[in-house]
Amino acid sequence: MPSTHYSSWFAHQLQGLINRGQRNLTAQPSHRFVLFGEDFSGGRMVTDLLRQVVTDTRYGSLPSTWTMEPLLEQRHFFPLRHIQRHGLACPDYLFGFKLSAADLIKTHGMSEPSRFMAILYDQGYKVIHLRRRDLMRHGIAVLKAQQPGSRHINPTALIAILKKLDEQRISEAAIVAQVPHLTITYETDLLDPNVHDTVAQRLCRFLSLQQRKRVQYSIKLVHQRLSDLIANYDEVHTALENSDYAYVLTEASAKLVI
Questions:
Q1: pTM, rounded to two decimals
Q2: DSSP per-residue letters across 104-151
Q3: H/E run at residue 31
Q4: Helical packing angle, 155-176 and 233-241, nearest 10°
Q5: What is the four-CA torsion angle of 69, 72, 77, 79, rounded to 10 degrees?
Q6: Count of CB atoms situated within 10 Å of the CB of 14
Q7: CA distance from start to end of the chain
């Protein structure tokens, strides 16, 4: 029978979940990590790279179906327990999931999200921080995903997205600063396939895994102007020049893989 005092019963149930979660840690995959960053920061590319090159001395290479999911996009009453359940259900030795600052702060209402990240780290999750330097192209990628096939960008919507991404970057930096982590930067580590082998070596060392094969590319990078991405570039340029984000017009990188 539950206690007539709900708070006491709730505390008892919570402690039970924590204790069971701690016991279940031994049954979790041997290698665990969290891929921390916003959408369009290279999460899919990191997943593909790991699937290509990672192996383990006991279990071999990862299956072609290995992937990562954003486990906390939806609100869960016990988010840590939700992650642990997915870890227990993972048939592979490497278990990773995607996480963003918005998942912790907005979706789950955490006032101290860095504490949650520290708990994950203490329970054996290594933290890989995905970072994107080019705020302008990041914002364009987000908007284009919302309107596939269109090259027209609403300047007001772009400025709002830039502000949101800017705030999320600040939150991310504060959260990962509390734990040891590996930073992967989209523009320098993922955009150019010619450096993927070096990045793969860093990932394998960080996750204490072996690299089963080398990644070899020889691909030329050419310049792509922002005006090639946006049909109404002059309108967007004028709006940005008169906003707090005028600096992104000159800081945007111009590399494109062909």
A1: 0.84
A2: IIIIS--S-HHHHHHHHHHTTEEEEEEE---HHHHHHHHHHHHSTT--
A3: strand 31-36
A4: 60
A5: 80
A6: 12
A7: 66
Question: Residue 211 is encoded by which pair of tokens?
Answer: 């690299």
Q: What is the pLDDT of residues 111-163, one digit of tens each?
A: 999 999 999 999 999 999 999 999 999 999 999 999 888 889 999 999 999 99
Burial of 196 (0-12, 13-18, 19+ CB in 10 A): buried
Backbone angles phi, psi at 2, to 5 degrees: -65, 150
Nearest-angstrom CA–CA distance, 225 and 253:
9
Contact 69, 86 (CB under 8 A): yes
Tell me the C-alpha distance between 68 and 142, whole Å.
20
Bridge-based pairing state of the strands 221-223 and 255-257: antiparallel
- Give the number of other Cβ atoms within 10 Å of residue 67's Cβ: 16
CA distance 172 to 79: 18
> To which residue do tokens 């278990």 refer?
95
Residue 131 in tokens: 């970072």
Identify the pLDDT of residue 256: 46
Residue extents of the structural domains in the chain:
31-254
Domain 31-254: state its class: alpha beta
Scan for tokens 């772009």, then name that residue: 158
Residue 181 near residue 117 (C-beta atoms within 8 A): no
In the chain, how long is the greatest CA-to-CA distance? 70
Burial class (CB in 10 A: 0-12, 13-18, 19+), 176: buried
What value does the mean pLDDT of the chain take? 86
